[in-house]
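Q: I'm building a small set of examples for a reading group on sequence design. Run inverse folding on the following structure and report the sequence directly after it, with nothing in between.
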C-alpha cells in the first residue's frame, strides 16, 4: 500500500558533510597531522562512492591499523555495511565509533538510521533526540524523527516533526509527501490530499506524490482519480515495484481482481521483501475465499514488517474464513492493540 519516503540529497551545515542516502560519510581535511590515516580514509571514501566495497573496506582497515580507535574509519566501515543492508554489522561499527568518540554526531545519526532499519525504534529516537539538542534545525534528524514516529503509528508526533521541518525547508518535496502520507495513515484524507497536491505543485515530476495521491483517492472510493494518479506515477517511474503493488491494490478494491493480482505478482517478483505486496496478495486470496492461502501470505507480510497497515485485521478475517476462531480472535486482539482502523465486525470474540 503506502510507504514513507526517504530519498533526498541535501547539503547541510553539520561539518559541511554531504548527506547521501541517509548515511553520512566522514571526509578528512588534507592538512591534518594524521596524513597517512587521512589518505587511507579518502581512498576508502572514493571507493565507497564507486560502490567498490572491497577496496573501501581495505583502505578503512589500513587506517585502523595505524589507530584502532580512528572513529572516522569505523563510522565509514559502518556505512559500507549499511549500503549493503548488513544492518547488524553496520550497528557494530557505529557503536565502536561512538565508543571511541562519544560526541561524534555523524556516527550518532548513522546509528539512529540503522536502529530504524532494525526496528529498534526507541533507541533510534534516543539518538535523534541527542542530535536535535545540539542541532535542532537539522533536516535529516527531523526527517528521521518523523519517519520513526510514523513507523510507531504515533501520527500526532510524526505530524509535529514533519510540520516543523516543512516550516524550515518549505521547498523540500519529500517533506510534503511524508506529511501527506502521515495524514493518509491517520485517515485525514482532505489534509493528505492538500499536502500531496502541494508537493506536485513544487515538483510536477514527483512520482511518489502521485503514488500517495492514488491511495488517498482510492480510500475515498474515487477510483477514476486513483487510476489516473497511479498511472502518472508509473509513467514517471516505469516498473517501480511499489507503484505496481499499489495499482494492484487499487484495482482489487475496484473489482478488477485479475488485473490487480497480476500487478501485485509483478511487484513481488521485482521486490520480494515488500511486505505490503504480500499483504495485498493476502487480500486477493480473501476475495477468492481462499482462507489458508490468505493466512499464509498475511503471516508472511507481518513477519517481514509488523507495521504494515491493517495486516492483523485481514489476518483475523483469514483465520475466520479458514474455520480457526481461536487464531482469528488472537489476530483481532493484536489488531485492536495496534489501533488498526479496519475492523471485521462479523468476527465475534469473547
Amino acid at each position: 500500500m503506502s510507504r514513507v519516503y526517504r530519498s533526498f540529497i541535501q547539503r547541510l551545515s553539520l561539518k559541511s558533510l554531504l548527506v547521501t542516502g541517509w548515511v553520512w560519510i566522514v571526509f578528512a581535511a588534507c592538512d591534518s597531522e594524521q596524513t597517512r590515516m587521512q589518505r587511507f580514509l579518502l581512498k576508502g571514501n572514493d571507493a565507497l562512492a564507486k560502490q567498490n566495497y572491497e577496496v573501501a573496506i581495505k583502505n578503512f582497515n589500513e587506517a585502523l591499523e595505524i589507530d584502532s580507535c580512528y572513529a572516522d574509519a569505523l563510522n565509514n566501515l559502518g556505512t559500507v555495511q549499511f549500503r549493503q543492508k548488513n544492518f547488524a554489522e553496520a550497528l557494530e561499527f557505529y557503536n565502536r565509533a561512538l565508543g571511541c568518540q562519544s560526541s561524534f554526531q555523524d556516527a550518532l545519526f548513522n546509528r539512529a538510521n540503522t536502529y530504524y532499519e532494525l526496528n529498534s525504534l526507541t533507541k533510534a529516537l534516543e539518538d535523534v533526540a541527542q542530535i536535535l539538542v545540539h542541532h535542532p534545525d537539522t533536516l535529516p534528524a527531523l526527517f528521521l524523527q518523523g519517519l520513526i514516529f510514523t513507523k510507531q503509528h504515533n501520527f500526532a508526533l510524526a505530524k509535529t516533526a514533519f510540520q516543523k521541518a516543512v516550516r524550515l525547508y518549505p521547498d523540500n518535496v519529500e517533506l510534503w509527501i511524508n506529511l501527506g502520507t502521515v495524514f493518509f495513515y491517520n485517515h485525514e484524507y482532505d489534509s493528505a490530499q492538500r499536502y500531496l497536491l502541494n508537493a506536485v505543485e513544487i515538483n510536477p515530476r514527483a512520482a511518489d506524490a502521485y503514488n500517495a495521491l492514488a491511495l488517498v483517492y482510492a480510500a475515498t472510493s474515487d477510483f477514476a482519480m486513483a487510476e489516473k494518479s497511479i498511472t502518472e506515477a508509473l509513467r514517471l517511474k516505469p516498473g517501480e515495484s511499489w507503484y505496481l503493488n499499489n495499482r494492484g491494490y487499487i484495482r482489487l478494491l475496484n473489482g478488477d481482481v485479475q488485473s490487480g493480482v497480476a500487478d501485485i505478482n509483478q511487484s513481488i517478483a521485482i521486490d520480494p521483501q515488500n511486505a505490503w505486496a504480500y499483504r495485498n496478495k493476502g487480500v486477493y486470496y480473501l476475495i477468492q475465499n481462499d482462507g489458508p492461502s490468505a493466512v499464509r501470505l498475511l503471516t508472511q507480510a507481518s513477519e517481514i514488517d509488523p507495521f504494515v497497515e491493517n495486516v492483523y485485521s485481514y489476518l483475523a478475517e483469514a483465520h475466520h474464513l479458514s474455520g480457526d476462531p481461536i487464531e482469528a480472535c488472537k489476530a483481532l486482539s493484536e489488531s485492536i492493540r495496534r489501533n488498526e482502523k479496519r475492523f471485521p465486525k462479523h468476527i465475534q470474540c469473547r
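Residues 1-21 have pLDDT under 50 and may be disordered.
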